[in-house]
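thought: fold this chain, then report.
action: predict
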Amino acid sequence: MSDRAIRSVAILGGGIVGLSAAIAFARSLPQLVVTVVETPPDPAALADRLPGTTTSIHRFHAAIGLDEAALLRTGAAVPRLGLRFETWPDARWYHVHGEHGEPAGAIAFHQLWARARRAGHAEAWHLYAVAGALAEAGRFVHPQPGTPLAAFDYALRLHPERYRELLAALADQHRVTRTSGSFGGVERREDGSIAALLLADGRRVEADLYIDSSGPAAPLALDAGFDDWRATLPFDRVTLGTAPASAADPSDTIVGGAQGWQFVAPLPGQTILGRIHADAWEESVAIRPGRRRTLWVRNVLAIGDAAVGLDPLHWPNLHLAHSAIARAIELLPGRDCHPVETGEYNRRSAAEADRMRDFQALHYLRLGLPIEVPESLARILRQFERRGRFAYEDEDSLLEEIWLSALLGLGVLPKAIDPRAEAVPAGAAAAGMVAMRAALAQLPPRLPDYATYLKRSGVPT
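observation:
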């Protein structure tokens, strides 16, 4: 066997993504020598700068041994129930996580809801979820197993600077070498792979595997072409800012419009604001919607914004980076970086990124923007608009419930329902929904408001 094990990893970029990769590799593979080159931060590296995460953040934190209670106590993060969409496309609605309604045997709840909604007998989709009821009322508790408060999930809202500080401390505990410097170039082998990473002051960093997490410029990544998504995702500028602390809110606010959209993410001590648009402002950051066609080439792996360019809608940036890190560890090849393993990594990563593109494009399509609709998204819409059937695909890191919340929240209603659902009389289904809403409405008054819950959890103001 000539497939010798990888013994060292060098990571370019010391932001949230680079440190996340360093900790995950060091913790999963203790024999590795892991070095992070902390270059000056790239303002266009959105995964390092944005406050939003998805519910998958909990799995990643469990994998690297990062305790949520510590995040709360330091003010590095607070829980987030979901997204409150305003004027997207018209009425307010919430995108939240967890169970919505209850199935009738093998019949999915959304089939019965869609029939009732068309008849004017059902309220907004999110109101049939525990998280939706809590979000509407501005209340929060952590899920409580064995109770009605077990059937929901939540994400985190990060304070990027404080979060990075915690990751740096955790990296030090795992004996990750962190070195500061400016990128100076690379030495390449005859086959095009990297022999050494060079710093501007003349230092050399040698490793078996090089990870580029420095941002969209990706100076390490080997050129393998780029799939440009600007015809599908119309906004390519992001303007970020901060404002004084605002009222504590368990949901982020998303306000849409034909010229772009804005978000408001309140944190202890400050509020992070963002505008996503297509007009060039002096202080805005340019993004290039799309992905590299090949993300792992020879001994170079691009992750985060170095791999995929997406705007912040639904906070995909850090989610995709964490997924890439976990997949790289799962499929880690030998020192030869054999194409059997790197090819599988590239296939799965590309499919995941394309599915996230489709998810964002769904929102822009429903906003009435003239976008190019990928065939993969068109297939989802054809199936769902016909009879409410969701076409799940491999490597989709978004749960079906996340797609359903978006489809139904955005007003995509099936023309007919699954024939099996006709077995449930419309009147009985409508009565059951009324009872369900009444039960959910009893939960929020028993719970603390969001600000009180944060205070009880030790979150600094």
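thought: worth noting. The chain has twelve helices and 22 strands.
final: tokens above.
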